[in-house]
Known about the structure:
Layout: H1 2-19, H2 24-48, H3 50-63, H4 74-77, H5 81-97, H6 104-117, H7 121-127, H8 132-140, H9 145-157, H10 162-170, H11 173-183, E1 189-198, E2 201-207, E3 212-217, H12 223-236, H13 243-247, H14 251-254, H15 257-261, E4 266-277, E5 280-291, E6 296-300, H16 305-314, E7 315-318, H17 323-326, H18 343-351, H19 354-367, E8 371-378, E9 384-390, E10 393-399, H20 405-416, E11 425-429, H21 437-454, E12 457-462, H22 465-468, E13 476-482, E14 485-490, H23 501-506
Parallel strand pairs: 3-12, 3-13, 7-11, 11-12
Antiparallel strand pairs: 1-2, 1-4, 4-5, 5-6, 8-9, 9-10, 13-14
Amino acid sequence: MTDSLNNLLLEIEILIAQLKEKNKNELRYRIGEQLSVFYIKEKKSIKDLFSWTLIVINRFYKKHNLDVRLLNSDKYKNLTTWYKLLTAISDYLNKKYGEEGYGLANLNYMQQFYKKYRGAPDLYEKALQLDWSHNIALLKDKISEDERKYYLQKAIDESWSVKELEKQIKEESYDDFIETIEHSNYQYNIDKLTIKNYKSLVDVEISNPSKFLVFAGANATGKSNIFEAIEMLMHSAMVTGSFVFDIFGGKEKVINFNALQNKESILEVSLDLFFQFSQDLQRTKFGFKYDIYNKRLSKEFTNISKLDERLVQSFSRVFIDNYKRAENKIKVHNKIWLDAANLSNILKTVLENKAKSEEIIEWLQILIPEIDKVTIEKDFSGKEEIRVYEKSYPKKAFTGSLISEGTYNIIALLVLFYQTDYPQFVCIEEPETGLNPAILSELVPFFREMTDKYNHHIWITTHSTSLVAELVERELIIVSKKEGRTLINQCQEGDFEEMKPDEAWMSKMLKGGGLPW
């Protein structure tokens, strides 16, 4: 044991020399690691060779000229063998380095600090951001892991003092947070979207967005990048580590080129969310950050498993028939895929619900009056296919390529909002594809009803002046690009100045406006 103890002290001294001027929490974590490794290695000796361990400690005190009077105190005699060893280590470090936080209690906290975060690198990165006194407050209270994650994130986001953190723990604010979320049935509202250094999105922030929101702009301005960044965020919650970069083509294709050259930059995609029940309001964040220089991905989710799962399940991004964009993306069996290639499977499930089936047919007949009904039936080979019946030919079904592009797209859009029983966050790319402009004017009331009735978030990209013509200011964001950088103009009340929305856009009266292609 003597050799092991000397080796332990040598390792700690090396760590202090390397990390003393850097993040001190990292130093404490590493010391906690060394203490834990030593304890595991010598555990049997500590328990089985009680008297020998005491001899080792006495020799250690004499060798390093430490104050042996402590060894005769009643307080010391009542300590366990491990704490007697830890006291020896503490006295040695305090003598060598002065009063720099190497007391017995602090060494014990260092060991706890390591044990709490050794298997949670994302949480460890957050813990490094707090003062040591904050971390002690999180260690000394008997709180669950979920509670610790909550208070840790809140302390960072809201810059809590130690006293405020201790007050929040004592008042059990985590329980209030959970209660509000459960009473709201996990129905979230988006308070802010932040995207930094994702492709052309160098610094994009959308605050207090409308639940029905349209991004209008010319080709190649970065509209799709906004949706893709959100999609990447959701994928990051579905896979471990940094595998999400591989799904999206690699870091070089995802991170802004200038940011890659500037190693100080951070890639960030995050959603600020709030939940409301009666007068109670609770906020949380769901996002990730990637440190380009250190190549470190930090996932900042809510850490409430049911809520994180609901957020991921609620999201859908759809670009109908765009098979190229759907490559390599994770496909969930009970939701429409990005290219809507599995529409028949989802439509079949939806039509099995009588209430949903009736509502879809009702909306379909409003948008395409000639339609009588839509069914899923098997063809001659036994494969299930979509069949569309028109009022003019009630006994003759249109299938496959005989179904017009516009009809197919309308069915896909309708099914999208009935594929689950809970509120969704849906990002739709260019819904105007294959549709008559007159139908677009009817789609806007449909989207609004879906947000009002079912609490969906519906975000859309478009080039269509017909669709923009039906909007109010807070439903429109103009997207443009300057010198390779995507810019957004979040319209506010009064921006249209009594002009029609499409005219205001095309007249360049709105910042970023102009031709839609």
